[in-house]
Amino acid sequence: MRIAVLNNCVPFLYGGAEYLADALARKLQEFGHEATVIRMPVRWDPPERIIDHILAARLLRLPNTDLAIPLKFPVYYVPHPNKTLWLLHQFRQAYDLWGTQFQSIPDTQEGRAIRDVIRRADNEYLPEARRIYTNSKVTGDRLRKFNAIESEVLLPPLLADSAYRSGETGDAIVAIGRVNDTKRQLLLVRAIKHCRTPVRLIVAGKTESGAYASAIELEIRKHHLEARVEFIDRFISDEEKIELLSGCLACAYIPYDEDSYGYVTLEACLSRKAVVTCTDSGGIDALVRHGDTGYIAEPEPKALAAAFDELYLDKVRAARMGAAGEELARSLRINWENVIRTLTGSS
Amino acid sequence: MKIAWFTPFSANSAIGRSGRGVVEALAGLASVDLFCFDKDALHATSIPVRRFASHRDISPATLAEYDFAVYNFGNYLPYHLDLFEVSRRTPGICVLHDFVLHHFFAAYYLEHHRQSGEYVAAMERLYGAPGKAAALASIAPRGQRVWESDQSVDFPFFEEVITGARGVITHSEFFRSRVERVWAGPLRRLPLPYAVERHDDKTLPRDRLGVEPGRLVILTIGHVNPNKRVNAVIEALGRVRASVPAFQYVIAGPCPDAYRLDLEALARKSGVADAVTFAGRVSDQALHSLLEHADVCVNLRYPVIEGASASVIEEMLYAKPVIVSDVGFYAELPTDAVRKVDPHSVDHLAAALRDLLGDPAPRTAMGARAHEFAAEEFRSDRYAAQLLEFAKEIRRAQPILAVTDRLAAECARIGVTSSMSVLDGLAATLEELFGNPPPSTSR
């Protein structure tokens, strides 16, 4: 089939969705399809522009294309008779983020009208897709709650075919990935000072703001945690990541309200390591079952500390959780073959 | 270019009479077929005529071989119902002969479809809450009917026929500017084409017309309605009678009995009963003869419901001095070719009558100028050439209109309303993409 993967782009910005779109096109090609990524440039400011983009998407046509797989608002409005939506996210500012600090659209008469137009556009146009999959249960629940549209979860696999392996159960909790306040690494550092065991923490990843890095470093110095917390503030290569996960006690991933399960969560499972997350972290619970494959703790330093201590004190159980995590991940068939077969309707 | 020309073409239709010259001129420039639904005798023409019993007999496929359908709209349901229905299915160029189409749509919704709810909904859609309120009053027992009152100019309903049109033609600047307020598509004012054939050998003598010898003839033609201001003319004549030569005011056109009785009473009160003649509906020959014999024509309107006036043009082509209301299409005529009066002032009208009845020189001069202007301005051949040029422009603009239509349809689907500023942005973007380029500053 000739397949167009549709994504937005803010020129010169490249994030998770862009990686996923490129990986999907690459994998489609590996499975014998002709595939390309088509990106529609967008900007969200001023808010009236959002509606321009909705209309621009509606005016687009995809000739010579057998299947369209859009990933995001508003490119998922592009008309095509054979469209399978793999929804990463709607325009959340018009939904669950309305009324929060992330709202971005002003709460004026015009702003509310724009919000309503976005919701109505989703209601009108999303059902045009023949099949709708979401990248997480959270995304699907939101679609059902706000738009009364049913979908199925199709978890995105890891982008690279890296060989994760399981090594000895070590003494350190590792937190790998971009470092910023929504990923809440500072909360992990604060948890360590409440730990009763000598469990250690390794925060590894590039910080997105100097202020947040400084806050972590200050917390470490202030509570004399230099021997307990290692902060590797730089890009972590795949090899380093494999190594860190292989020999850790467990992985911690506690973002605030994230839709997806988090790649590092799956990477930890494939490394047969338990994962600690929080009750408000969102879609991570696709892979973390409390007491089974890891811990889902309250987003409080003491609650996290208790989980870390329990893992440290019972490494056999920690290893068992890791094994259960791997089994769960395999059972969920989070792999490209499943994704390609599902999206192309050949499964 | 191939054109399907939809028009009432009954021998009684003024629109048909006006259009006959145009299609014959058009036929020299393009291929034209006449489409009509008339049941009775038609104007004679050399153009191929395709007669249909109903709009249902014409499918979009019937019209696929034509580049354009041109729809001539007027305010009379029996003449325009079928062509309106065809225009809904196959959009074309709308020629608006009447500014007020309320009578057409009131009859369309309330009598033809018997759907008062649709009438109210259309009034609300076009005019908001005031439209809805007026519509509800119109359908209430003993309520004020919009179409029977001056309110009709506030709710003219022409918007309904131009929705989705590929282009719009009006015959006056005032109407063009009114359309422009609510419609952004291709729009053109073309002077209403009209021609008269004067045959001196067919002119009846004055005594055959009931006109007394030695009197100046003042003439008003057409259906007698309150908006023709015949009452004001009678009043004004009463005021000037003592100061002008003897006259006879002939009103040639059908008049409801009750209204005629009112006017006759007014004439008695004004002291001109012996000088006012209600000729009723007259034959074409009698009308021609009256126009030949007339010394002054009076052609007033208030309010204005026409897009232009064939009767004024006809009077001008007969080289008559015409007194008109200084409003609408009439106000756009040259000041030396007609005498314009304040539509609300009987004094103004009396002064005009005094000037024109009192001295033959200004009558003759104004009549000559009227003929000179009208013969040049209201030419069918020029109209045909300009219409064809307009059609070519529309064809060039078609991709832009298609995009605009698509955007409008999507906006409607997702609830973007006219009160949202996003529409201004869209309009600006369309202007940026498709508007005229700014004048070059180089060199």
Output the radius of gyration of chain B: 23 Å
Class based on secondary structure composition and strand pairing of chain B: alpha/beta
N-C termini distance of chain B: 39 Å
The run of helices and strands of chain A is EHEHEEHEHEEHEHEHEHEEHHH
Question: Helicity range of the residues of chain B?
Answer: 40-55%
State the shape of chain A. Answer: globular
* Estimated radius of gyration of chain A: 21 Å
What is the structural class of chain A?
alpha/beta
Q: What gross morphology of chain B would you assign?
A: globular
Topology:
The complex is a heterodimer of chains A (347) and B (443).
Chain A: E1 2-9, H1 16-30, E2 34-41, H2 48-59, E3 67-70, E4 84-87, H3 109-125, E5 131-134, H4 137-147, E6 152-153, E7 172-176, H5 185-192, E8 200-204, H6 210-222, E9 229-232, H7 238-246, E10 250-252, H8 263-270, E11 274-278, E12 294-297, H9 301-313, H10 315-331, H11 336-343
Parallel strand pairs in A: 1-2, 1-3, 4-5, 5-6, 7-8, 7-10, 8-9, 10-11, 11-12
Helix pairs in contact in A: 2-3, 5-6, 5-9, 8-10
Chain B: E1 2-6, H1 14-26, E2 31-36, E3 49-51, H2 60-63, E4 68-73, H3 77-89, E5 93-96, H4 102-112, H5 116-139, H6 158-162, E6 167-170, H7 173-182, E7 187-189, E8 216-221, H8 230-240, E9 247-252, H9 257-270, E10 276-280, H10 284-293, E11 296-299, H11 310-317, E12 322-325, H12 328-331, E13 339-341, H13 346-358, H14 360-377, H15 380-414, H16 422-434
Parallel strand pairs in B: 1-2, 1-4, 2-3, 4-5, 5-6, 6-7, 8-9, 8-11, 9-10, 11-12, 12-13
Helix pairs in contact in B: 1-15, 4-5, 8-9, 8-13, 11-14, 13-14
